[in-house]
Amino acid sequence: MAKDTIVYTDEMLPLLDENGEEMPFHLVAHVTRNDKEYAVLEDPETEDGLMIFHVTPTEEGYEDFAPVESEEESEEIFYLFEAAFDDYEVGNAI
């Protein structure tokens, strides 16, 4: 079984919304769990909390971000993130 990893970042990442408009997000961390890649994102404008996305590489060499649909899976990644970095507060860059 692969080891869980968390790599913290302080990057800003532009994502496209459903209307094709760019929105900046704070990429808080990349998480690898059970051979799957995830991104922990925060909207710096609203600071509504953290969002968990699946990350898959595209043929063009980019990363595709898709929301995690399963509440159980999202909570598992969030708790892994939180346990490793318990001092993180929404709205505070690392």
In short:
The chain has one helix and five strands.
From the structure provided, what is the oligomeric state, counting identical versus distinct chains? single chain
Distance between the termini: 29 Å
Give me the side-by-side strand order of the main sheet: 1-2-3-4-5
Which descriptor suits the 3D outline? globular
Give the tally of β-strands. 5
How many structural domains?
1
Question: Order of helices and strands, N to C?
Answer: EEEEEH
Q: Can you summarize the main beta sheet?
A: 5 strands, antiparallel
The helix count comes to 1
Low-confidence spans: 90-94
Q: What is the beta-strand fraction? A: over 45%
Relative helix content:
10-25%
Task: Give a verbal description of the structure.
- This protein has 94 residues and is mostly beta strands.
- The protein has one domain.
- Helix content is 15%, strand content 47%.
- It is built from one helix and five strands.
- The longest helix has 14 residues.
- It starts with a strand and ends in a 10-residue tail after the last helix.
- The relative contact order is 0.21.
What labels describe this entry?
94 residues, globular, disordered C terminus, five-stranded antiparallel beta sheet, mainly beta, 15% helix
